[in-house]
Amino acid sequence: MKLSLDPKAINDVLDGHWAEARRRGRTLAEEPSTHDDPADDLDTARAKTLDGVMMMAETGLPMTGLSPEMGGKNEHATNVAGFEETVTANPSLQIKAGVQFGLFGGAILHLGDKEQHQKWLLDAQSGRLLGSFAMTEIGHGSDVANVATTATYDEATEEFVIETPFRAATKEYIGNAARDARAAVVFAQLITKGVKHGVHAFFVPVRDEAGEPMPGVSIEDDGYKGGLKGVDNGRLAFDSVRIPRTNLLNRYGDVTADGTYSSPIESPGRRFFTMLGTLVQGRVSLDGASVVASKIALDIAVRYGLERKQFTAGDDFAETTLLDYGQHQRRLMPALAAVYASAFAHEKLLTSFEEVFAGADDSEENRALLETRAAAFKADSTWMALDVIQECREACGGAGFMAENRLVGLRADLDVYVTFEGDNTVLLQLVAKRLLGDYAKEFANLDVGGAARFIGTQAAEHTLYRTGLANAGRAISDALTPNLGDKRIRSGRLQRTLLETRLEVMVAGVAQALRPATKMPAAQAADLFNVHQHELIEMARAYVELEKWKALDEKMKEQTDADQAKAFRRLRDTYGLGLIEKHMAWHLMYGRLPMSRARQINETLNRLCKKLAANALDLVEAFGYSDVHRRATIASGVEAERQAEAADYYRRARARQDFPVDEKQLRKAAKKKAKAAAR
Amino acid sequence: MKLSLDPKAINDVLDGHWAEARRRGRTLAEEPSTHDDPADDLDTARAKTLDGVMMMAETGLPMTGLSPEMGGKNEHATNVAGFEETVTANPSLQIKAGVQFGLFGGAILHLGDKEQHQKWLLDAQSGRLLGSFAMTEIGHGSDVANVATTATYDEATEEFVIETPFRAATKEYIGNAARDARAAVVFAQLITKGVKHGVHAFFVPVRDEAGEPMPGVSIEDDGYKGGLKGVDNGRLAFDSVRIPRTNLLNRYGDVTADGTYSSPIESPGRRFFTMLGTLVQGRVSLDGASVVASKIALDIAVRYGLERKQFTAGDDFAETTLLDYGQHQRRLMPALAAVYASAFAHEKLLTSFEEVFAGADDSEENRALLETRAAAFKADSTWMALDVIQECREACGGAGFMAENRLVGLRADLDVYVTFEGDNTVLLQLVAKRLLGDYAKEFANLDVGGAARFIGTQAAEHTLYRTGLANAGRAISDALTPNLGDKRIRSGRLQRTLLETRLEVMVAGVAQALRPATKMPAAQAADLFNVHQHELIEMARAYVELEKWKALDEKMKEQTDADQAKAFRRLRDTYGLGLIEKHMAWHLMYGRLPMSRARQINETLNRLCKKLAANALDLVEAFGYSDVHRRATIASGVEAERQAEAADYYRRARARQDFPVDEKQLRKAAKKKAKAAAR
Fold first, then answer.
1. Span B95-153, pLDDT tens digits
2. Option in A167, A469, A645 nearest B645 (CB)
3. Which of A159, A217, A362, B258 reaches 20 to 30 Å from A656, CA-CA?
4. Do the beta carbons of residue A538 and residue A583 sit within 8 Å?
5. ipTM
6. Active site (catalytic) residues of B
7. Which CATH number among 1.20.140.10, 3.40.50.510, 1.10.510.10, 3.30.450.40 corresponds to the domain A282-621?
8. pTM, entire model
9. Domain residue extents for chain B
10. Which residues in chain A are contacts of B427 at CB distance < 8 A?
11. Would the keyword Membrane be found if you checked this record's keyword annotation (chains A, B) (predicted)?
């Protein structure tokens, strides 16, 4: 059952194309001063985190995204991959650095012109100029197009006047704002000559040299949060704050001295989405950071599960460890499979991120795909991280709740990942809309074969729905996969077909249900949309799950070492069958999976998890982390030492003449004797 | 759709028999000094929590469980119900008070004799004598029978010698230990005359008057945890610590001066379980506390969801609130239904707790039922609380992550509830064993009709399994519920039948699968058990879910007000159909639910959630909490104020001549004009 695996070789596959950057990030994360400490108060945690940000600046990683003429390499994923690994030091560090270099610096890079790059970008990426990214407002969480802050051009002074018109327009949850930022990229409605040209980004100084708020700028501290103690989130409000005209980051929209607006993108809608699209890096990096956090949690829980033995005083030779238990395997091994799938999916995301931003393929299609995937993966991976970390924490029992074992801290910090940089439910609706759009397009341009396939699916689905004739569906499915044995349930083709069919049927179904909306008045259309909101979100999740499964399947097929390929296949099947089990009701209802096969899934998963558990240590060792990254007492070997000591005690004690006899044994012996006497 | 409900009347139903005690607990929780504060450091949080414990002592609630001759009322549930409500002030307070009065005092009450009550119990329940409950050891989390600490009787001095033989035997996670306890009830193996009589409880002083550890006692501080900052958990180890013979809490086992052991319960196994059984209060109170924490979270999230409008700058009259969204309803309303079901199930648990401990019915059957339910409900409710609080936190977006809105703090504190007082997975296996035991007993003594029923179920299940003939099962199920319309899916009988059948079939199936284990060698039997561990746990969860559903169903039937009954029915159906949807694959695979009906469940749930949302405010208002209990900025009305201000701004602005026109609108108008000119 146990395979012969080389963790180092698997690590190469996991670390992938940006291995070098990852290793640099991990080296930085070994520096003790970057590590979070639950005993730190708010000020200490923030100061330490800022020091960490400065150390990151010193690595030079934040400069790699710049053009060669500015000292960069026009490499975008390197930076992201490196940063992601700093989650192992402290998620606050990853986030605060993300705000500084990815959002603040990134906005200047992507939305500013060369002059603005010269003025601010080098200072930003070297940490000399600390900044905020002021997009979110209290009243508009995920609805950026409607932020209420205004930037009105004043021809007389050639300045923009930044204004927070009411309390709900206050910029909220802004990282770096409460303590460190000297400037902020502020998103506001650009108004000139009485016309509102939509949301644009402005460079606004918020504190003077002494750290005092600039005139007209009010700053509040968000104080304590559920985690991320080292990030100084705060609120920014502007009372007629004047900035030079040239502080408008003008790549996608500019205003001349006399107040004339111009933009290379005519449509205000497309202009807005293009601007936002350049900021996709945040979502990409949260996807990756979630994978890293999940890896660390599993690394800790698996090591503890393999070390902690459940021996009793009566039987100190029993070598059952926690991870020998069926339920423990079912808790941790599917999590391990999901993390592998997500890691490979993230690698693909990074690749298209690099293609788009380095210019190898910045076609509109590729950009759209990148944005869709970033939204989808971010949503799925951040939720996965919370689930995985929590499962690990519970699998470690009371020890899992101790701060010194890190799991609770990781979970607390990662919590907000599911609602920031786009609330997950909002992101998934975005993905759903893209899926429907692609479906409609495909439908329009489809050749006959393809159309028939879609129509076929749809018709089958519809017939089923109306008639409730499950057998019709089952017959189709059985024809598709006839006489499946146990082995065949682990067939990649079957898994793929099930995952794909589910997505296709869902998309076709929702598309059909929503079609009338196009001809309805807005309010009625909104109602119809609302009725199907839950399905839209489920559909988007089905998309991510398929994408992640495919990433793992592809990587499996690349493996040349027989045992390594086998391990990857176990991971793929555990992930795939786990998804099919999760959505089993759907597959049954839509007749895609015969009952007899469905019944085998639970047992097959039990067996797969047991097999994976046999190589669990190799598979977490392959993440490439050391004790310094884990920093969890329970994963340090102390448990094994204690248990050896205990076993030794009993061994020696039992050899003693005066070792007490158990009352239970005396009673048993007495009973036997009484019985013998009675005979 | 909206019903006319009286929150006060529903509150009476929810608060139930122990309403008075609940209100006393809530009044105490209004005291600002008891409230947790994320800014407190460890020392401050602990000191404040201790003050709160003292205030609880002053209420006299901890004395109610004592006998009348000691100034009590022999009322047990009163105390528990009152305590549960203090979760609204600070879960640390509930836990630290639980350690002091429920575990430390409770152990003296239930395991000690009258003399020992006189010596320690009044002091414990008045807070004059602070104590720990030292059961768990590092090496034995949930396996209490095998704790390694020894208490060896020394005839020469008439003392017990308490010993921690090795590091893994250190008492761990002990509440009150790190800072406040002067004494501890220590669970240790009683050894006298060379015989080990199993685990007994001993009263052991651990600190002197000055607060210094007693000679031979080592105390370590567990430091920071994932939450419960106000509870001073720590480790206790004993190096030949001598205590008088009379410090053995001797109700179920005593040692005479010459070292002779005696017990009113002959069987060491039964003796152990009887002792442990008296300590069920901890689990009972965690079940209730989880319900209270979930109520507060929902109270906050629902109020915010009703207040926060998603209007845009362009349309300030749109009055869509978050809770108008389908997905938002699907997030919060099933949680609301689960909390109602759990509240009523908890009331039943409290009732049997009172029956057993006040003596109205302390039969072995009733004790066993109490213990089974306490384990089952505690496991389900503590997990429910984590899910509900997290769903609420995410439903509030970024605001949900701010400490000032309380959700993150509640979740962090409640986290450990799922693994302490018995790890949930261990508790559920306990429940599963009881279910199998009952099944076997019933099977043995069953009359023919009953046996036929079981055999019938089993046979059907078995046939299905072997043949994969879903239709056989479906035919049965269709016969059972012919021609179900939409309404009939909401039939209580159908829901109950589905929930019951699932449990019965699972029990029968697992029983059959495990039957060979009784004749196997231990290791092989353990392997077989291990293969079915996952199913055992699922089976136990099916039991709790049915019990909770029944509690809600019964309470629904008691309602006389038509609208109130209707609201309860919506809650019951949401809870019931939610469970059926969750386990839909099972119901389909076992042919219990026809496909055509299964397909309706999602839509029916959508509709039910929408209906419940119409009365959401009434249903959370009925929890009986005030702003002081919620203490969440977002639930205080501030959001509505901000939004009114924003709407007002736009209304006034639009009336102005110089209000900027949207570029989009200009473009639209220009296009129209161009078209008109072209015609």
1. 999 999 999 999 999 999 999 999 999 999 999 999 999 999 998 766 788 899 999 99
2. A167
3. B258
4. no
5. 0.92
6. 421
7. 1.20.140.10
8. 0.93
9. 21-125, 132-264, 282-621
10. none
11. no
